[in-house]
Each structure stands twice: as C-alpha cells, then as structure tokens.
Amino acid sequence: MTKDKIYYTKTGDPFVDGGAWALAILNEKSNPYNLDKADFETQLDFISDLYVKEKWNKIIYSVFPNSKLINPSVKNKKEAYYQLLKELCNNVIPLMEKGNCVACGKRRVGSLRTKDQIPLVGSNKFINFFPSGVEGASFCNVCTLLIQFCPLILYKSSQLVLIQSSSDLVMKYWVTKVRKFINEQISLGEFGGCWDSGITQPINSLFDFAKSLILEYDIQWFEENPTITIYHFTNYNQGPDLELFHLPSTVFRFLAYIKQCSANDAWNRIVRKGFFKIKDESSDEQIKTAFKKHRNSVYTNLLKNKSIIKYFIDIKNHKAEGNWALISYYLKNVRSMKEERITAIKILGDKISDFIQETNNLKRLHQLEMAKNYFTFRNLLRLISKERLSTNPEEPLIKFDDFVKDLFPEDALSWNETRDLLLFRLYEQLHEYLVKNFESIKEEIEDIEEES
What's CA 278's distance to the chain center, in Å? Predict the structure, then answer.
C-alpha cells in the first residue's frame, strides 16, 4: 500500500482502534494497517443485518443510544442504518498530513458527532460534554465508521467491556476468537449477542482474559511485553457509566512466569485467598461461583500496585504458597524491590531456620507469626540473635547495614512486609521439619495461648 493510500494508523481511541481490528479480521487481514476503501464497503450490509437481530439490538442501546437501529420512529431500521454507513463510506479518504479529528488527527471533520454514533460523548442538549461548548465531538467520517464495527468485539461482564492493548498480537487473538464466535451464531442461526464471559466482576474477567492468552497461545510473552486495558461501560441514556482497569506489562509478565515455572496450583491457592467469602471447606463449584461474582483483593491489589505478599503465606497451616523463586520474581519485577533487600531477607530466614532446627525452639516461630507491631517483631529478632549465640554461629544474625538498609528501609512502615517475607522463607526451609513436628507445634501454641 502506497503512503498516500493509508487509511488507518493506531489512534489510541479504544473504540476506533477496536473497530479497525474488527473490520480487518472480517476482511481476513492480519492487521488493520493494510485496510483499504474496499474493505469498508464489503462489510456494511453484514453489520446492518447483524445489529437488528434481537439480542444484538439490545446491546446497541448501551453503545449507540438514539441510533437509527433502535429509534422507534424509524420504520426500516436496517435500511436506515445501512444508509448512514453508506454515507460515511462514500466519504472515506486516506490519512492526510494533518486534520482536526480528535481520534486520528489526520483528517478534517465535516459534521460533529453525538452519542448515537460515538459512545460516551454526549448529545446536542448537553454541550458540557464537549470542549468549547460545541454541540458534538470532532470525529472524521473514517473514524466514525470504524467505531460502528466496535460492538462486534465487546463482551459482557455485568456491563459491556471493550479491550485495548499495546500488543497487536493480543488484539488479533481476541478479535479472531470473537469472529469465530459470531460465525458460529451465523451457522446455527442463533444470534445471542456479543460474547458473554459469565463473569460479572470486570477485574476478574480481565485476569481471566490474560490467563487464557498465556495458556492458549505459545508465544514469547516476555518479549511481547503487552499491557491490557479494559473499558467497563454503558452508554445507556438513563445512566452512562465508565470504569477503566489497566493491567501493566509487569503483571502480565508475572502471570506468564507463573505458567513458565509450573506454579499454577500455588497461584490458584493465592488467588483463592482473595475471596473473603471463601472458606477452607468450600467446594470447587463454590470457588467458581465466587470467581464469577465476587471481587478479589489479590487481583485488585495487583492492578493498584499494592502488595500481595501476605497471600503467599498460610500462617494457620505454617505453609508457603509456591517457592522463593516465585515470590522473589514478584518482588523484583512487579514490586520493584531491590535485589539486595530480597537477598538480605532470604539470608536472615535461612539463619533463623537453622537456629530453630538446632534448638527446637518452635516458640519463637509462633511468636514471629503472632507479632502485631514493629516493636514486638524487632524485639523477637533481638531475642533470637541472643539465643542463637549458644550455637556458636560464624556470623551475627543481622549486621547493622542489613538491618537499616535492607530489612527495614522505611523503619516501622516496612516491618509487616519484612515479617511476611521472613515467614515465607521459614515455612519453605522448615517444611519437612514442621511436618515432622506438627503435633509439637500445636502443643507449643496451646501453651503460649494459656500463658497469655
């Protein structure tokens, strides 16, 4: 395609870019950057016919309210919508050097657009939605037409969800999957509307989507390094709404690492803890229901860049979920923790582990588990350091620089994080010992609780 015949380049507008991918896959092209004018013309009848199907038409209420597709005053809705598309298509031109379209910025705008053609903007009566108080949004004919294809790639999760990604592969895989889904509707003659994930929590659906990509496609995701954003929205007249959820590339790579290191079982147990209503005895079916209907604090914290370290440990059963390689990858690549701090906590855990096994001092382990504040935790480390001298160690438990720079770099603010990581290492190193001495641990806990 010659330079003066380029019709699309990535805009950053999720509705325009999503529609471009839908149009490309409809025309069996590998990407939307090779779209030409004929590609627009060949699909107008297809979407006009699809959108008047009952369940697809219901979706249009939340995407293009007041559209010719749903306006009760319009007699032949399919024909009226087709004529709108045809008019837009007749004015399709290649990208120019510059323009005033708010999406592509490369074409001039003719008439201003409102929410019946552009989701989440506004109508003529509510000019406060638009810059400078004008009665519409400045979208060119091509971008407006591309947006008309966007409903094809939406999915349901309570409200509608639109996917946007920095990765062309992510977009291609998703849109191709949706295309196959629509083809099945056509072949069966059963038009059930857009893809329904069955998951009513949008954040859960985002992680489910990322997981499906990693499991289904044998791609070097570490090199692809994608980000994924979902727009959870409704453009319905009586209550338009929008929520954005962004999955950073660091979190996506972490999910890919989980598969690479075969830590899926451990990760599933970690995620399960994020459902507060799930109990230990919950059935698989109850867990599936929770995943579909309830918020998960593990997922929410990952999106908000908050720590999930506490979910890696099971204090009740004195267990670590996963191994040190898994949690250290998370610490380094998601939490951006310095290697020196990770190593210092690991070494401290190994020293205390050796001390507990040599002295059979399970009391100190339980006290570390039950520490409620920085001062208690710090005092326990002092006591362990003192008692450890009886084993004639070659090195002190903690060196001054390690204590100040690595173990508690934020003083009391970081004590909880350090305690949880220390317990993780202790549980991992003491696993066989703790299993063998499980009854002794129970007795030790009971004695401590009686003393208190």
Answer: 21
Within the chain, which residues score under 70 in pLDDT?
1-4, 123-134, 277, 279-282, 441-452
CA dist., res. 116 & res. 13, Å (int): 17
Counted residue by residue, the chain has a size of 452
Residue 391: inside a domain: yes
**CA 142 to CA 8: how far, in whole Å?**
9
In this prediction, residue 409 carries a pLDDT of 86
SS3 for 165? strand
74 within domain boundaries: yes
Q: Is residue 296 within 8 Å of 204, Cβ to Cβ?
A: yes
Rounded to an integer, what distance in angstroms lies between the CA atom of residue 237 and that of residue 314? 48
Place of tokens 């806990």: 445
DSSP annotation string for 30-75: S-GGG--HHHHHTTHHHHHHHHTSHHHHHHHTTTSTT-TTT-TT-S
Angle, helix 374-388 to helix 362-370, in steps of 10 degrees? 160
- Dist CA 389 CA 232 (whole Å): 59
Structural domain for 373, as ranges: 307-451
If you ran DSSP here, which 8-state letter would residue 106 be given? S
In-domain check, residue 275: no
Domain final residue pick, 110, 133, 153: 153
Count of CB atoms situated within 10 Å of the CB of 381 = 21
Chain-centre distance of CA 228, in angstroms? 7
CA-CA-CA-CA torsion sign (242, 246, 269, 208)? positive
Amino acid 181: pLDDT: 96
Q: Are strands 241-247 and 228-234 parallel, antiparallel or unpaired?
A: antiparallel
Report how many domains make up the chain.
2
| Residue that terminates a domain, selected from 153, 170, 186 | 153
Residue 172 inside a domain? The answer is no
Distance CA 294, CA 277 (A): 8
- d(CA 59, CA 162) in angstroms, rounded, equals 13
pLDDT at 446: 62
Q: Which of 144, 124, 120, 145 is nearest to 135 (CA)?
A: 124
